[in-house]
Structure formats: C-alpha cells, structure tokens
Amino acid sequence: MPTAVEIPASAVDLYWLPLGAGGHSVRFNGLVFEAIAAGLRHRTRCDLYHSALVVRLGSDRYIIEMAPVWNEHASDRGVVGEGAVGSRRLGRLRMFRYEIRRWRGGRIPDIAEAVDSPQRLTEDPAVARQVLDLVPSVPTLVWGRDELHTGDMWNSNSVTAWLLARAGIDPTLVAVPAGGRAPGWTAGCDPRGLALDTGARPVAVYVPRHL
Question: For a FRET experiment, which of 39, 40, 128, 207 has its CA 20 to 30 Å from that of 57?
C-alpha cells in the first residue's frame, strides 16, 4: 500500500513570486524599472521577484507577507503593521499603504505562479516560532525608498530578509531563481535595518548573487 507523505510538524518555507503576478500594471511597471536599472548599471535585465513565507507550527499554518492594504478583503488576515508606499505623505491615502500580515490559515493569491518554490529553510520548531513572534517587530519603513541609506529600497523582500536574519536562519540558504533578482533583500539584511528593533543581536550581512 502507498504510504502517506509525512508533513513536518514545523517548517519555514520561502516562495518566490514574479513581480506583478496576477496584475498586469504592476508587472509592466516592474519591467520598466528593471530596464532602467539595468541600463544605468550596464548589466543584463533580470526577472524581478518578491517573496513571502509560509510557516507551519504544529497544526497551524501562517502566511507572512507584505501586501497592499486594498488587495485582500478578509477581515481576519492577521495584519500586524502598516506602512506608506512612496512617501509618508502619500501614505495618508489608503491606496498608498501596505500591510504586514501574519495570517493564520491564510493564502497567497498568486502562489500558483511561484518559481523554484517552496524553499525549505528550517524544520526547527523553535526557529519557526521565533519567526512568527518577530513579525510584529518588522520595521514599517516607506516602501520603495532607501531611508536607511543602504543602497537598496525597502519592500517585501526586505521584510523577509529581516525576519530570517533576526531568527537566525542562514541567509545563504536562500536562492533566487536563475536569471532573477530580488530588490530590497540587502536592505533587510543590513545591520542598520536589523538594529531598528531594540535588542537586536549582531548578524552577519550576506548579499547573494543577483539579489
């Protein structure tokens, strides 16, 4: 008789989602942004990705993601923080705000378009719990801006990188899909971002190729 696939009691999985998956305007704007960035740095264009985490702890499953406040209407989506998009002044308008979710039993709308995913980062229950506990402490900097002067913008990848580094997960375990780039990752790993939350311990900064 075939045996059932064993599901680990605890796990942290990372999903790479093509920028603008499910939204043509976001995808187009991303292509324009990458074309300009590649031209300025005299490099070939890359596919752009944003990231989300799925954390399993016992029988519970959580989605951790930065997303626009207006793209999900479920009232129980686990919002633990909000921030502005573009500028703090624009952030007064709902359409220019993002939220950080720790959504128990939630969903990632465009997960079917994920590439080279999921990436299993750990099955340690203590680390999985720490990732969950850290989510409300993620800095809510302005999306798309470099307020920390790290040379990289703050976005969903910054949130993911910040959580992994603060929880003690080795950033070198993360691999961006071939030919891809994840803007914002460096900002989340940078000590200037990690130190925004009181009690931060020193964390080695690692910048994977193509991020």
Answer: 207
